[in-house]
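Writing this down once: the sequence line spells out the residues, with the fold written below as integer tokens. I am pasting one below:
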Amino acid sequence: MRILYIAEIVGKAGVFALKQGLPELRKCYAADFIIANADGATGGNGLGRNHALYLRKLGVHVLTLGERCFYKKDLVENIEKTPYVLRPDNLNAGAPGCGSRVYRMGEKKIAVAVLLGQSGFLRTHGDNPVTLLPILAERLRRETPFVVIDFHAQTSAEKKTLFIVADGLCSAVIGSHSRVQTADETILPGGTAVLTDAGRTGSIDSVGGNDAQSCINEYLTGIPEWTKDAWDKLEVQGVMIELDEKGKARGITRVQLPINQENNRENRR
């Protein structure tokens, strides 16, 4: 099975970049299944219902979320009706939505789950992912050997720790949240593919996909400011994972696709 993971989509520019780049990525990688992190798709903070529907129509099979999973009320109110949207699995038991599901692709099944790190998140808190992962992986592997985890965490140390725990228990663990692609993709001895962070989909010449001046003003004044989309040097980032019939990784490749911006003036409005 070939799985394409799209790094965190940031704002309107990120949605535009994915729309432009996904057909080429499909042609290049011949992916069987597409996962995209959409934690910043709507205004750089969270995912709205309309964007969720639109990204699904573009061809993304599963949208994963992180600490911003409940920032948009319209999605929260409808998340039970959108099985292709996953919030972190290690949230409180009463949280709406689902954090892991098994999806059918033809004759095969693939399990996708999201875990939230415990370091640095002020508004959203999850249970210990290191404790939960072995239990979660065992449950999902009863249905399919293809198990992919999106680990949305702040620190590289926490991500590296979970990678070691996950080795041999799942097919891949892909880090998200920092919006900066790392160059440490590898397959661990137990057959689990890992990458500390897949990066971002949107503007590369920016601060995490956001307008740099807005971020500078916030640091200079101490006054919170709604950041604006950045549109310079758009790129779709992510990772391509190839799995054998037993769900073990046999290939992992970082994705970096620059987007032609000649016709994107209308999208800036």
